[in-house]
């Protein structure tokens, strides 16, 4: 199998993580959820009793991040969601994590999903996908995830959190969320996981077929 880099970007709960994992398995590539890196940084800041918008502390925690941090079991809570969004807006944090992301795919290629993979991390990626869905669909997905984990949340609160995160991601000065100009867009609002995978895999196969 050709060692390629597949860059997958999109907003929260669009289905990009599920899709990225399936593509990595199908094409025998390593997988990295880059959003998890920002969750780790946010979690580490919270562990220190700090404010995720504290540039110095967040940058320090980003520089100290290790692979074992990615295995923590406390990275998917609403509090960490907000902390991750805050630290992701700090240029020094993004710079500290850039080499980590690029080195991950250095030798064997990779599938990476996040919000700036095709625009900043791997602008020369072999395949760029932008995965999106309507806010109402994404909120329903995230609400179901939270309830399955036993969280006491309302659909309205989840949708408000997603809307706020979308706005923060789109408007931040450092690597705002936007599709790369040459990204293939897939709207998963009306697609289940299998149909989304089929559409994405077809696009990857087209890239692999190119000389």
From TrEMBL:
GO terms for cellular component: cytoplasm. Keywords: ATP-binding, Cytoplasm, Kinase, Nucleotide-binding, Transferase. One of its GO terms (biological process) is pyrimidine nucleotide metabolic process. It is found in: Cytoplasm. ATP binds at residues 10-18. InterPro entries: Cytidylate_kin, Cytidylate_kinase_dom, P-loop_NTPase. It catalyses: dCMP + ATP = dCDP + ADP; CMP + ATP = CDP + ADP. It comes from the Bacteria. Its EC number is 2.7.4.25. The keyword Cell wall biogenesis/degradation does not apply. Its main location: cytoplasm. It is an enzyme of class 2 (transferase). SUPFAM superfamilies: P-loop containing nucleoside triphosphate hydrolases (SSF52540). The keyword ATP-binding applies. GO terms for molecular function: ATP binding; dCMP kinase activity. Residues 6-195 form the Cytidylate kinase domain. Belongs to the cytidylate kinase family. Type 1 subfamily. This is Cytidylate kinase. The gene is cmk.
């Amino acid at each position: 199998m050709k060692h390629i880099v597949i860059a997958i970007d999109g907003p929260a709960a669009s289905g990009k993580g599920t899709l990225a994992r399936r593509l990595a398995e199908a094409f025998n590539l390593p997988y990295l959820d880059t959003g998890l890196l920002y969750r780790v940084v946010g979690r580490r800041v919270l562990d220190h009793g700090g404010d995720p918008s504290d540039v110095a502390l967040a940058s320090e925690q980003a520089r100290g991040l290790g692979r074992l941090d990615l295995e923590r079991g406390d990275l998917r809570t609403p509090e960490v969601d907000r902390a991750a969004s805050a630290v992701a807006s700090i240029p020094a944090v993004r710079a500290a994590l850039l080499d980590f992301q690029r080195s991950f795919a250095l030798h064997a290629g990779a599938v990476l999903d996040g919000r700036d993979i095709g625009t900043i991390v791997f602008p020369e990626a072999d395949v760029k996908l932008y995965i999106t869905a309507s806010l109402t669909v994404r909120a329903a997905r995230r609400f179901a995830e939270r309830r399955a984990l036993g969280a006491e949340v309302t659909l309205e609160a989840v949708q408000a959190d997603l809307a706020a995160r979308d706005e923060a991601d789109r408007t931040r000065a450092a690597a705002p969320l936007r599709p790369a100009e040459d990204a293939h867009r897939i709207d998963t609002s009306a697609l289940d996981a299998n149909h989304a995978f089929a559409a994405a895999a077809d696009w990857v196969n087209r890239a692999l077929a190119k000389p």
